[in-house]
Amino acid sequence: MADSILEAFYLFLTFQNIAIVFVGVLIGTIIGAIPGMTTPMGVALALPFTFTMQPVTGILLLLGIYKGGLYGGSITAILIKAPGTPAASCTVMDGYPLTQKGEARKALDMALYASCFADLISNLSLILFAGVLAGFALKFGPPEFFTLIVFSLTIIAGVSGEHLTKGIISAGMGLLFATIGLDMVYGTNRFVFDNWQLMGGLSFIPVLIGLFALPEIIRYFSQKVSDQIKPVKMSGMGATFADFKRSFKSILRGSFIGVVLGTIPGIGGAPAAFLSYSEAKRNSKNPDNFGKGELEGVAAAEAGNNGVAGATMIPLLALGVPGDVITAVILGAFMIHGLRPGPVMFVENLTMIYALFIGIMLSSAYLFMIGKFSIRAISRISEVPNRILYPVVIVFCLFGTFAINNSAFDVLVMLLMGCVGYLMLIFKIPAPPFLIAFILGPLLEDNFRQSMILSEGSFSILLRSGICWFFWALTVLSIFLLIKSRKKNIPLNG
Amino acid sequence: MSAERKLGIAVVLISILLLLILIPFGVDTPNQVSHITLSPDFWPKIIVSIIGLMGMLMIINPGVEPQEGTVKITNPFSQGLRLAGTLGILFLFYLLVPTLGMVAPAIVLLASMMWFAGERRPRYLLTISICTPFLLYFFFVHVANIPIPLGIFESLRG
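Structure tokens for the assembled complex are given below, as produced in the milestone run.
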């Protein structure tokens, strides 16, 4: 193990890697701070730029964007009441009233301290638990993986928004699109229609960019959307150590809430932020101040939100199962670089995993530096109007998509997926389940068919071990809790 | 009839079309399959059946329409024109790539999209629409070593 750690340092310690984590966190913070942009959109746009990088470098760039995006969303939430990410909507509740009181700087500082602390706790949890879980998962065969992926697909419920049926339809579409190409067992064509470019299936990036970047832009151009930018008000003194100490219990509690909820696929940052906030309010001596500009409220919301970041990587690295939409994109990035996250990766690419851990830890420090020293500049970037931003994003999409395979066909796929995504937007069908199912689809089918080959067509193999039973039980429990939470209208979104 | 119910009907109809036409014609199935679950069309059929079932559920229980985060159609004609214009520019770009490469159409696309969105300041229109495609070109060609086509301007490549 010590040898692996030393090798990991050797692998990580290059100027390129150290710089790329910084660049990633900076880009993520900027993207998170722009209300018209989302973190999945940012990760999708950055993905084509990682092709020629070393796998560690490329993945660290994306992880940096993910972490920066989570924090960046709070900047506009506090300053202009426009959360850059769904998870930052909880930060608005006390962050914006603080800005109105002339204490924006204090709120931003507290959001930063809470984010960095929670991020650190989350990263440590990732380092401690991912290996243990992966060791357990080494016992998995195709039936166990099939049941695990079935359970993972219940995360679709978490990213389906208000309509579960539409979420399942979206996931079905994703699974169906994933079947395009050559059949894995017989090698026959599926939905290829004599087009050789479809034989390898649809490339992941055109689908991703088409679904996540284009629809919002098409919507902007097809509707007359207001382009007015609210002026940024950065005022007051920064937060002190005494402020941090006063909120520390809530930050610590929120960090652990984030870690626990982040480990469960599909929960995401928003419920963690709201749960952390409500717990802070419940335990506070001044619960009436919450919602009126309570600094502890900002701290709790941000701790819950950022505590999720490292924890969502636990199921991704240990089991190869994404915890949310962004980790689904990062899973796609691993695959593009020829790597398959999961227990086998802990055996075959342990050095790389440790190198990623080192980079992830460094990202917490960078997040602090960027938040502390460049917040004013970043908040100014968020003032770029959409009439300039969106056309530039379109050109990034077009170049990035073309660069994957040097193929204009991929550009066509992206544009068509953009149309599909726009139709989904019109009919209020959520896009995240499509993407998650598109990524997990081949794994699900492959493991199912391998199981069927092993058992000569008997379904009993899907109940062959305690692990299978465990995941079936978790799936049933997850569906039961989901139905119960929907009846109570508890918000669940990625 | 509510929009949700109409969508449910559309989903069911599309599922039937997929089951009866697209899957039988689009999926090549070998003459002999050792077990039905291993057939190449087994998985697509299961997926489409689930989609159809969800469509039926939407017909039976359409639920409450969400109000937020959706596209509001206030003026269908002008919105339709703007949508057609946006998609027209994007697909025109795709058609021009084989002849003109990536950079020249991107400059035109960027300038026209910014104009379309309401940007009228010439210095922004010119600098952003020219610099962005060239910067991306230089990144991909000289940093990432990924060739980006220039079409008929290929002779200008340094």
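Chain A touches chain B through 64 residues (CB under 8 Å). The longest helix of chain A spans residues 104-137. Further analysis is deferred to the final report.
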